[in-house]
Amino acid sequence: DAKTTQPNSMESNEEEPVHLPCNHSTISGTDYIHWYRQLPSQGPEYVIHGLTSNVNNRMASLAIAEDRKSSTLILHRATLRDAAVYYCILQNQAGTALIFGKGTTLSVSS
Amino acid sequence: NAGVTQTPKFRILKIGQSMTLQCAQDMNHNYMYWYRQDPGMGLKLIYYSVGAGITDKGEVPNGYNVSRSTTEDFPLRLELAAPSQTSVYFCASSFPSTGTEAFFGQGTRLTVV
What we know:
The structure holds 2 protein chains of 2 kinds.
Chain A: E1 9-13, E2 18-23, E3 32-38, E4 45-50, E5 55-56, E6 61-64, E7 70-75, E8 84-91, E9 104-109
Parallel strand pairs in A: 1-9
Antiparallel strand pairs in A: 2-7, 3-4, 3-8, 5-6, 6-7, 8-9
Chain B: E1 4-7, E2 10-13, E3 19-25, E4 31-37, E5 43-51, E6 54-57, E7 64-66, E8 76-78, E9 87-94, E10 103-104, E11 108-112
Parallel strand pairs in B: 2-11
Antiparallel strand pairs in B: 1-3, 3-8, 4-5, 4-9, 5-6, 7-8, 9-10, 9-11
């Protein structure tokens, strides 16, 4: 499985935008980029995913580099509820199980 | 629509005891997964299933067994519990297409003493 690299932790202030980076230099052409987050004492929840084009949904935006070797999850206005561990995961075309890394712990201050 | 339901939520086992962690989903998902999460760590895949009657090992399968007799249920069996199996266990399910969302249960917190 292709690997991802994320910073261990990031900090943000409430109501400010947050850009969470992910490097995946060994990504293959058919790998999907997924983002999940895990709030304290809860199971992971889906945030967003994409293949080549940038994606937007009600929770966040996903910006994918043109060469696909990196991506950025964008939270447009961080809230205290967004404090969580964010995981960037690659899923290959075979649709195999998601393999989690250590993720980025996001802290949000008021 | 309850999503993914795990039972029990908490359990304390003695070393050597056995138990089954239950997982059920009502979304007609073909794929189901079991993960464990040790304190401060990411999730590790134990076993997964792509449909009834089909299971396969993940990253950390030793000490566990699974079965998948129906689409809805995917129980995880611990035989001869050991302290190293103290962890939070998460079950998840999804449709088989690549790039679809996986849904996770709320977890079972297991302590082996």
